[in-house]
Automatic annotation (TrEMBL):
Protein name in the entry: Squalene synthase
GO molecular function: D-glucose transmembrane transporter activity; squalene synthase [NAD(P)H] activity
Alphabetized InterPro entries for the sequence: Isoprenoid_synthase_dom_sf, Squ/phyt_synthse, Squal_synth-like, Squalene/phytoene_synthase_CS, Trans_IPPS_euk-type, Trans_IPPS_HH
Cofactors required: Mg(2+)
Species of the source: Esox lucius
GO cellular component, one term: endoplasmic reticulum membrane
Enzyme superclass (EC): transferase
Residue ranges that the Swiss-Prot or TrEMBL entry lists as coiled coil: none
Catalytic activity as recorded in UniProt: 2 (2E,6E)-farnesyl diphosphate = presqualene diphosphate + diphosphate; presqualene diphosphate + NADPH + H(+) = squalene + diphosphate + NADP(+); 2 (2E,6E)-farnesyl diphosphate + NADPH + H(+) = squalene + 2 diphosphate + NADP(+); 2 (2E,6E)-farnesyl diphosphate + NADH + H(+) = squalene + 2 diphosphate + NAD(+)
Keywords per UniProt: Transferase
Gene3D superfamilies assigned to the protein according to its UniProt record, in alphabetical order: Farnesyl Diphosphate Synthase
KW Transferase (keyword) present: yes
Length: 373
């Protein structure tokens, strides 16, 4: 139960209760489905089936922009299904990609022959992430500028926009190692894992734990190099709804990377941030100072866990120090409950737990899993 997982984190309990009472609407207003056309409601239905995370954060956007982003995302996800599958013969794939825009007008068109593929080298890994996530970041940025909610420079700077997408995608791939291996998918780049094992699945064996952690830390370090670009990108945003939409997944990502870094559980089960932790990040990440503070906190946590014997130690320390320098002016976010004595804190947690249980029986649970795959 989410309330139990957050018992040792009083601020999370406070925010879980606040979220359940409607606090989520301050950053994610509820969509008015009744006012939408039938076709637009269908788009949101498909969006929820495709990505819970994106369906949640899209509600942070203003007006018509949220509809444009919804459709944009669905089209790219469908196109990616074809592009990403290397088992489709080249002579069949190219015509499908060239004609894909025509399929959008065919209500009964579908494609059910997709299979995953290995990403062979780190360079190809970056290229793959660019096409499936970096281009999404670039396209979204151009939509932000076209809507005039953001300055033209946001849409023009494709390098920063690309990094926004790559950071999220690499984090998802790192986190989902075991889940992907169990269904015969392989996303970790061969150039990385081949330094530590003969086969990617070998990293899940207890006998290979040291090597597995070395590989994991190498990939986390590679993902972290995008964080300075993420900070630069977010600092340019001026519209509150666009900022929330962009910032929330990014702080979730660095929290997830921090949880994964040097963590054997990546190879043994599922590593996810607590729901209370996710809700707290969601409610805090509404301004640049708070985002920098969050980035500083999680980079500091990783800094304390860097092993003396890790092969990526120097690179990891270097990028973490760069992140620290970019966030050095920010102080730690204050806890709303640090002033409470233990007895009052225990009472507050008990009341929150009972209230949560009561509320949970009367309304559906909110979705805060911001990291989709």
């Amino acid at each position: 139960m989410d309330i139990v997982k957050s018992l040792g984190h009083p601020e999370e309990l406070f925010n879980l209760f606040k979220f359940k009472m409607g606090g989520c609407r301050t950053v994610m207003p509820k969509l008015d489905y009744e006012s939408m056309s039938e076709s637009l409601r269908t788009c949101y239905l498909y969006l929820n089936q495709t990505s819970r995370s994106f369906a949640a954060v899209i509600q942070a956007l203003d007006g018509e922009l949220r509809h444009a982003v919804c459709i944009f995302y669905l089209v790219l996800r469908a196109l990616d299904t074809v592009e990403d599958d290397m088992t489709i013969p080249f002579e069949k794939k190219v015509p499908m990609l060239n004609d894909f825009h025509t399929y959008l007008y065919q209500a009964d068109w579908c494609f059910t022959e997709s299979h995953e593929r290995d990403k062979q080298v780190l360079e190809d890994f970056a290229t793959y992430c660019h096409y499936v996530a970096g281009l999404v970041g670039i396209g979204l940025s151009q939509l932000f500028s076209a809507s005039q909610l953001e300055d033209p420079e946001v849409g023009r700077d494709t390098e920063l926009a690309n990094s926004m997408g790559l950071f999220l995608q690499k984090t998802n791939i790192i986190r989902d190692y075991l889940e992907d291996i169990q269904v015969a998918r392989a996303f970790w780049p061969q150039e990385a894992w081949s330094q530590f094992a003969c086969h990617l699945e070998d990293l899940a064996e207890p006998a290979h734990l040291t090597s597995a952690l070395s590989c994991l830390n190498l990939l986390v370090t590679d993902a972290l190099r995008h964080v300075p670009d993420v900070i630069s990108y977010l600092a340019r945003l001026r519209n509150q709804s666009v900022f929330n939409f962009c910032a929330i997944p990014q702080v979730m990502a660095i929290a997830t990377l921090s949880a994964c870094y040097n963590n054997p559980q990546v190879f043994q089960g599922v590593v996810k941030i607590r729901k209370g932790q996710a809700v707290t990040l969601m409610m805090q990440a509404t301004n640049m100072a708070a985002v920098q503070s969050i980035m500083a906190q999680y980079s500091q946590k990783m800094l304390h866990r860097v092993s003396l014997t890790d092969p990526s130690r120097d690179k990891t320390l270097r990028i973490l120090r760069v992140i620290q320098e970019r966030t050095v002016s920010q102080t730690t976010l204050p806890s709303r409950t640090t002033h409470l004595s233990p007895i009052y804190l225990s009472a507050a947690m008990l009341i929150a737990a009972l209230s949560w249980q009561y509320l949970s029986t009367g309304q559906p649970e909110g979705n805060t899993d911001m990291q989709g795959h």
